[in-house]
């Protein structure tokens, strides 16, 4: 299975969908997958060092030929699932052009086009869609930073108006995503760790120590807040990530 995540806009949640949703999806299924970041500017793969999701970066370069070569190298391992997280702006243009010229799009099973709200994200998503649709592969949109389940239609009004029958997945805006960076693993893994209990117990002991050490310490409060987010991650996994996985099952067949 090979999935490409693209939107020309930076900050559209490409890396978030790649790691938190697609990476976790393959991990959940026990499928050997690698998340490859084709981005010479951002290096998100350095952050999640305690995760079981395997990540790497690939050189993009300045020319279509450079990108074509990189893609050909990466597509060689046919038995491995790939998540291709494509950097914004010029990188997206080069990658989509290289994909077309090498005809490697035949090997891509699905395109995911993320947005994180705002008109500019939508305009870029639409422009990206206009190019990607020519490859005649399944396309799924990713709506991120959703402020609330009742607000999604309002927040993404332009999207729902333009793409009435499109497949989409969404992520609500959540502290669990930020905590994930801090704990260097995915929200999915944090939720599993929290359910298993060990992580909560460790934090609880630390908090008890801090609180007992005197007046309500700042540090104790901070730790208690982290515990709240750890507990939230269980809900996030159940209510937000699991439905994403179900939709991916449906689209990917
Ligand atoms: N659902 C969410 N909740 C909280 N933060 C989010 C969410 N989605 C994205 N972000 C944050 O928004 C920023 C941009 O997202 P990122 O995935 O890095 O975008 P891109 O890869 O398209 O540039 C990151 O700091 C990320 O953590
Ligand atoms: Mg990124």
List the helices and strands and how they pair.
Layout (H helix, E strand, L loop, with lengths): L1 E4 L8 H16 L3 E6 L15 E5 L5 H12 L5 E6 L3 H13 L7 E6 L3 H14 L6 E8 L5 H4 L1 H6 L4 E6 L2 H9 L3 H10 L1 H15 L5 H35 L1
Parallel strand pairs: 1-4, 1-5, 2-3, 2-4, 5-6, 6-7
Helix pairs in contact: 1-10, 2-3, 8-10, 9-10
Bound molecules: adenosine-5'-diphosphate and magnesium ion (MG).
Describe the structure in your own words.
The protein has 253 residues and is α/β, with parallel strands linked by helices. The chain has a single domain (2-174, 238-252), classed as P-loop containing nucleotide triphosphate hydrolases (Rossmann fold). The chain is built from 10 helices and 7 strands. It has helices spanning 14-29, 64-75, 90-102, 119-132, 152-155, 157-162, 175-183, 187-196, 198-212, 218-252, and strands at residues 2-5, 33-38, 54-58, 81-86, 110-115, 139-146, 167-172. A 7-stranded parallel β-sheet has the order 3-2-4-1-5-6-7, with helices on both faces. Helix 9 packs antiparallel against helix 10 (218-252). The protein is globular.
List keywords for this structure.
253 residues; alpha/beta; Rossmann fold; seven-stranded parallel beta sheet; 7 strands; 16% strand; globular; binds adenosine-5'-diphosphate; binds magnesium ion; P-loop_NTPase; CobQ/CobB/MinD/ParA nucleotide binding domain-containing protein
């Amino acid at each position: 299975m090979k999935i490409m995540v693209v939107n020309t806009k930076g900050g559209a949640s490409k890396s978030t969908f790649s790691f938190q949703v697609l990476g976790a999806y393959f991990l959940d299924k026990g499928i050997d997958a690698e998340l490859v970041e084709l981005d010479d500017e951002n290096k998100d793969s350095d952050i999640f060092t305690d995760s079981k999701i395997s990540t790497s970066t690939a050189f993009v370069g300045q020319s279509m030929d450079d990108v074509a070569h990189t893609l050909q190298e990466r597509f060689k391992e046919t038995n491995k699932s790939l998540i291709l997280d494509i950097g914004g702006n010029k990188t997206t243009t080069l990658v989509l052009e290289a994909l077309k010229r090498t005809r490697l799009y035949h090997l891509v099973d699905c395109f995911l086009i993320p947005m994180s709200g705002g008109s500019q994200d939508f305009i870029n998503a639409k422009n990206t869609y206009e190019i990607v649709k020519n490859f005649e592969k399944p396309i799924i949109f990713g709506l991120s930073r959703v402020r609330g389940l009742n607000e999604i239609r309002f927040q993404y009004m332009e999207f729902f108006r333009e793409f009435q029958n499109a497949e989409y997945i969404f992520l609500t805006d959540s502290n669990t995503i930020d905590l994930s960076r801090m704990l260097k693993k995915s929200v999915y893994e944090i939720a599993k760790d929290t359910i298993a209990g060990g992580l909560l117990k460790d934090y609880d002991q630390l908090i008890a120590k801090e609180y007992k050490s005197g007046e309500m310490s700042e540090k104790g409060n901070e730790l208690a807040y982290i515990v709240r987010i750890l507990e939230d991650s269980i809900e996030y996994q159940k209510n937000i990530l699991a439905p994403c996985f179900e939709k991916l099952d449906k689209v990917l067949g």
